[in-house]
Write a structure and sequence with these properties.
- The protein has helices spanning 17-34, 76-83, 87-90, and strands at residues 2-9, 38-44, 49-52, 55-58, 67-73, 94-99.
- It has one domain: Dimeric alpha+beta barrel (Alpha-Beta Plaits), CATH 3.30.70.1060.
- It is an alpha+beta fold.
- The protein has a four-stranded antiparallel sheet. A two-stranded antiparallel sheet has the order 3-4.
């Protein structure tokens, strides 16, 4: 089985308490449905600092993301199927699935 990093882009968490609770419940359901394939459910990310050659700055790097999960699947197509109906996508965000390349 291969591992895949799922990064969360756009979307975001609703500000309304009821909608936020609904979003968390939907994520919990997705976690249950994904089962043992979900290696690390991940977490939303806070404000970043970007380290570049010779500098450190507040704020995101180009192409930054707001959260992550790690899943395990036979191949990238199977990994994509695991996240195709993720509640984050249903809220308007997008997920990028990237294979972890072993050395």
């Amino acid at each position: 089985m291969a591992r895949f990093l799922v990064t969360y882009h756009g979307g975001g968490m609703p500000q309304d308490d009821n909608l936020r609770q609904q979003a968390m419940a939907a994520f919990g359901k997705w976690v249950e449905q994904t089962g043992k394939a979900l290696i690390d459910p991940g977490a939303p990310l806070g404000p970043p600092k970007t380290v570049s050659p010779g500098s450190v700055k507040d704020g995101p790097a180009t192409g930054s993301f707001g959260g992550y999960s790690v899943i395990e699947a036979n191949d990238i197509d199977a990994a994509v199927e695991l996240v195709r109906h993720h509640p984050f996508v249903e809220r308007g965000g997008s997920l990028q699935v990237s294979p972890a390349v072993a050395p």
